[in-house]
Amino acid sequence: MARNPDSVLSCVDMNGDVLADGVLRYAFRQLLGNNGYVHVVNVPESFDHVEFLKEMGEFQPTPTGTVVGDVKPERGMDDVNHGQNRGGLTPHTEGYEFHGLPPRYLGLWCVNPPAGQGGETTIFDGNRVLTEFTDDERVHLRDTAYRWGSTEGLARHGVRPTAEHPVLEEHDGETIFRFSTNYLVVPDGDDVARRVIDRGNELFAERHIAVRYRRHDLLVWDNWRMLHSRNAFEDPERHLKRVQIAA
Predict the structure, then answer these.
(1) Which Pfam families match (predicted)?
(2) Which residues contact 209 (CB under 8 A, 6 or more apart)?
(3) How many other CB atoms are there within 10 angstroms of residue 37's CB atom?
C-alpha cells in the first residue's frame, strides 16, 4: 500500500492562503492527466464540490438514479458485495454492466471520515496492467464482446443490469479499459481475459495507492484508466458524496 504525493493537491499554498480558482483548476487538470487521479486536501469549508466538478462534464445518474449520491453504510447489506456497506471491495472500474460508455470520471468527497482503521479508497493505474499484454492480446480484448453482470447489492434494490462490451474499446482516440474481478464472464478457454483479471488483482494488491480521507477532501480519477476498490471499515458514520461524470 502506498501514497503518491505527486498526485496530492492542496487548496492552500505554503503561506496558508487559499489558491486562486484558476490556479487550482490548472493544477488539478495537470495532475489528473498525468497520473490518472487527484487527491485534493486542505479543502476549505466554503468549497463547493459540485460546482467545481460540473466544469468537468455532465453528471450521470448512479445505478439507483441519484445524480449526487451518498456513499455510507446501508443497513442489511454487510453480507453482500455492495458499495453501500462496510466491507472491502474488489478492484473494478465503474459502469461496465450498463449499455453505452462508462462514466469518464468519478468524484468522491468526504462528509465524515471514518474513525479507526480502514475506509480508504484504493486505486491503481490500469495502464500498468495493459503493458504486460502483447499487441495481439490487446486486439483480442478489443474484438471480443464479453458479458458483464452486476452486484448482489444492486440486485436487492431490483437493479439487475447486464451488458456486452469488450474489455478494451477506443473512443475519440482514447482507450477505455473495463475491469471487474467478479462480474466479467470469462468464456471457457479465454486465457487472455482470465489473465487480465488475475494480473490486475495481483498488481493492484502489490502497488495500489490508498487514499485516507479527511473532512472535505476530494478524490477524482479517470474511470477509463484507473481501477479502484475500498478497504473494509467498522465506523457506520463514514460518509462520502459521489458523482459520475460523462465523457
Answers:
(1) TauD
(2) 1, 2, 3, 4, 7, 37, 122, 123, 124
(3) 25
- Record the pTM: 0.93
Residue 111 belongs to a domain with what CATH number? 3.60.130.10
The string of pLDDT tens digits covering residues 80-122 is: 777 888 999 999 999 999 999 999 999 999 999 999 999 999 9
The number of C-alpha atoms within 13 Å of 132 and in the hemisphere containing its C-beta is: 14
Residue range(s) defining the domain that contains residue 88 = 5-245
Q: How many domains does the chain fold into? A: 1
